[in-house]
């Protein structure tokens, strides 16, 4: 009798570290990010120029989650404005449209992600379970809310079945606004790395983990000036990065020498078995295609056309 092995079910976890500068990461001891980079890759990326969009939360996460630049999704600032999410929905919604029998999770604290503040909610629709710890209801803002996000997300990943999860931490951004990118900011990055490690550990403890194929992504929406603050056109503010790996497995592809934030959505969707259609008009591409090689680690970012 011929025995066949059932392919592992694909899952994906995206972890957002708000306002984290890529150029500072090599200076820090970040065991979780380093493990992801070693298993897969960590590559610096560049956000659009200020003439296209502010280097701010709403434009950055709209770009990361939709796979298109601000000229298409329409979010260029944190202020109220119309969007084009009906034409360019975020990847959680794309997944549920394609695979309505699966579930998605978003565990966040930023008001623009989970409420109508500014141009939000950016995560409108397509989220089976939205856990929203509103930063506006805690005196410490995201610094007080992030531990709750971490604990809730850890529990959900361990005990529930979500094909695609997005977990967002904001205390790095808040710390930089208060104190610049000095010691406390670096400690905040280390803390978010630790929380991310706990999320990955929760995934590995799932009773069905041996039958699952998990892609993990860590990214950010913008950087910060040395003194703190963002929204402008400096290279410190326009920094971002993509880190990506499959848990306990080879990544299965070698990323090109140049990647962009808009590549995140199509790459995750392809891992989850979603066919990225040409008429979606995405600016990004799935990275699981033949490409030139790049050493994993702290590579040079790709500049967008015109940058």
On the 0 to 100 scale, the average pLDDT is: 92
Read across the widest sheet, the strand sequence of neighbours is: 4-3-5-1-6-7-2-8
Domain tally = 1
Instruction: Please give the CATH class.
Output: Alpha Beta
- Strand residues, percent: 15-25%
Written as H for each helix and E for each strand, in order along the chain, the element string is: EHEHHHEHEHEHHEHEHE
Helix/strand/pairing category: alpha/beta
CATH architecture annotation name: 3-Layer(aba) Sandwich
Protein name: Type I phosphodiesterase / nucleotide pyrophosphatase
Organism: Microlunatus soli
GO molecular function, one term: hydrolase activity
Pfam families: Phosphodiest
Structural commentary:
The protein contains 10 helices and 8 strands. Residues 291-307 have low confidence and may be disordered. The protein has one domain (16-302): Alkaline Phosphatase, subunit A (3-Layer(aba) Sandwich), CATH 3.40.720.10. α6 (142-159) packs parallel to α8 and α7 (171-179) packs antiparallel against α8 (183-204). α5 links the parallel β3 (104-108) and β4 (129-132). 31% of the residues lie in helices and 17% in strands. It is α/β, with parallel strands linked by helices. One of its GO terms (molecular function) is hydrolase activity. This is Type I phosphodiesterase / nucleotide pyrophosphatase. It comes from Microlunatus soli.
């Amino acid at each position: 009798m011929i025995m066949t092995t059932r392919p592992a079910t694909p899952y994906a976890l995206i972890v957002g570290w708000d306002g984290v500068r890529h150029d500072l990461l090599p200076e820090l001891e970040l065991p979780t990010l380093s493990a992801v980079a070693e298993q897969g890759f960590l590559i610096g990326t560049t956000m659009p120029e200020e003439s296209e969009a502010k280097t701010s939360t709403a434009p950055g996460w709209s770009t990361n989650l939709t796979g298109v630049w601000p000229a298409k999704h329409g979010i260029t600032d944190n202020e109220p404005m119309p969007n084009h999410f009906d034409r360019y929905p975020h990847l959680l919604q794309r997944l549920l449209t394609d695979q309505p029998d699966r579930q998605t999770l978003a565990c966040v604290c930023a008001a623009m992600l989970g409420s109508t503040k500014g141009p939000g909610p950016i995560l409108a629709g397509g989220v089976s379970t939205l856990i929203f710890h509103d930063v506006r209801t805690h005196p410490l803002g995201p610094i007080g809310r992030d531990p709750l996000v971490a604990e809730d997300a850890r529990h959900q990943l361990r005990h529930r079945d979500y094909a695609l999860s997005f977990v967002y931490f904001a205390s790095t951004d808040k710390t930089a606004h208060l104190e610049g990118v000095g010691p406390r900011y670096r400690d905040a990055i280390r803390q978010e790395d630790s929380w991310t490690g706990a999320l990955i550990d929760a995934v590995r403890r799932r009773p069905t983990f041996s039958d699952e194929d998990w892609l993990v992504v860590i990214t950010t929406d913008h950087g910060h000036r040395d003194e703190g603050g963002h929204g402008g056109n400096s290279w410190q503010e326009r920094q971002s990065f993509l880190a990506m790996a499959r848990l306990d497995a080879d990544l299965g592809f070698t990323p090109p020498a140049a990647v962009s934030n808009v590549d995140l959505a199509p790459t995750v969707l392809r891992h989850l078995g979603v066919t990225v259609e040409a008429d979606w008009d995405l600016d990004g591409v799935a990275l699981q295609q033949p490409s030139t090689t790049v050493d994993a680690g702290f590579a040079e970012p790709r500049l967008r056309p015109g940058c």
